[in-house]
Amino acid sequence: MNPNTKTVISLLTLFLLFNFFISFIATEYIPYLGYYSYPELLDRWDLPFFIERFAGFDGLHYIKIALEGYERNATAFLPVFPMFMRFGTMVSGLSPILVGMGISIIALTIALMILPHYLKLINLKSTSIYWFLLFFLFFPTSFFLQGVYTESLFIMFLILTLYMAKKKRWILAALFGYFMGLGRITGFFLSGLIFLEVIEQVTFTKDISRYIQSTIKSLSFTKILAIIAPVLGFSTFMVYLWFTTGDPLRLAHSQVDFNQNRSASFVFPLQVVWRYLKIFYTAQGNFQYFIAVVEFVLTSMVVVILSYDAWQIYKKRYSHVFTRAGLNLFAWLSILLPISTGTLLSVPRFILPLFAVFIVLAELPNKWMKASILILFLILHTILLMAFIQGYFVS
């Protein structure tokens, strides 16, 4: 099966309609909790429940930033997505909920159009690309991709950066990489991936000294700019925080204001594992317990997959070894950073940009195993989406 444009559009349409249908069912049959920071923002615009609640939880913070700018602990959220929302709201006159969802859906569409081309460039087979799209779109937390959340925009900039780097269009790679750094704290990890992509494009020689010299000689201003662009993007926001709050690290320090058991200091990952094992042994079996299990299982799955992927890279089982190593490194750093705050909270959502995970799943040799995993993803996706729509925190 070749995932051409028609196939991609069909999968995207199925994804959107499925999520809206499940959302509608949830508003009819699931008890409403709706424990939001700014519930009045959902009531300001007369929208159907099954649409407006895609803006729940963090979405309301983005709406508030788009309407009022940065206040109090809003500095925990980077500016690209709310800036797009503010501009879209001013131009269209629509509610920021519809604008935010529109941005996410447009960004997701662009990302899905580019993804197959990029995956072909790193030698994935057509059938594997198709499975990649299925795993990605129906991952348990993928409904955030059409919500008032930064996921789709971040992933769009990620795939555009990777694609442009692979095509050696370094100025465009730098531009999109800069916006990645402004989009999410893990965006600056992309610099390592781009550096490995630069190395990938240098003809390998067994003479390591000569190979290093060739790599250094291959560096141009545009390549260096592309490598540092994500760091420059994140640094821009740090400078803004420095001038407005006096604390360039206010982004990290404000995380503790949300009372989500995050620590402002480093927590060793094994301490987090021990904490969750204690939860499973001592905590009451309620919805929060179920979410803790989901967080632990999905995080463990990612760790196993990335470890296997790293071993395959070490054994040079892939073509484009440096590119695959870059994707793997980006995934490890992106998953370890939130874990180092002392909790697995939101980690299932942060898995979405980790392309290395979906590539490994897509390349599994047994189609029945892949089908079984996809069914499990779809069941969990449905449960989490119904809970999220009715105001239960899921990621």
Structure overview:
The structure is a single chain. The chain has about 400 residues and is mostly helical. It has one domain. Helices cover about 70% and strands about 0% of the residues. It is built from 19 helices and no strands. Helix 7 crosses helix 18 and helix 8 packs parallel to helix 10. The radius of gyration is 21 Å and the shape is globular.
Characterize the main sheet: none
Task: Tell me the structural class.
Answer: mainly alpha
* Tally of individual domains: 1
- N- to C-terminal distance: 33 Å
The low-confidence runs, each spanning 5 or more residues with pLDDT under 50, are: none
Count of beta strands: 0
Q: Which term fits the overall shape?
A: globular
Strand content: under 5%
Give the helix proportion (percent range): 55-70%
Please trace the helix and strand order, writing H or E for each element.
HHHHHHHHHHHHHHHHHHH
Q: In angstroms, what is the radius of gyration? A: 21 Å
Number of helices: 19
> What's the rounded overall pLDDT mean?
92
Write a concise synopsis of the structure shown.
The protein has one domain (5-389).
Keywords for this structure?
395 residues, mainly alpha, 19 helices, 0% strand
Write the layout of secondary structure elements.
Blueprint: H1 5-29, H2 40-43, H3 49-52, H4 58-68, H5 80-92, H6 96-121, H7 126-137, H8 151-166, H9 170-183, H10 190-200, H11 208-218, H12 221-245, H13 250-253, H14 269-282, H15 287-314, H16 321-339, H17 347-350, H18 355-362, H19 367-389
Helix pairs in contact: 1-19, 4-5, 5-6, 6-7, 6-8, 7-18, 8-9, 8-10, 9-12, 10-12, 10-16, 14-15, 15-16, 15-18
